[in-house]
Amino acid sequence: MFYHNINPVLLRLGPFEIRYYGLFFVLGFIIAYFMLAYLANKRRLSLTKDDISDFLLYEIIGVILGARIFYVFIYNLKSYLANPLEIFAVWHGGLSFHGGLLGAVAAGIIFAKKRKIDFYELADIFVIPLALGLALGRLGNFINGELYGRITNVPWAVQFQDAEGFRHPSQIYESLKNLFIFAVLWNVKDKKLPKGFLFWLFVTMYSFLRFVVEFFRQPDEQLGFFFGWLSMGQILSIIMFGIGFYFLHKRYKVL
Question: What is the domain partition of the chain in residue ranges?
Answer without folding.
Answer: 2-44+118-250, 48-116
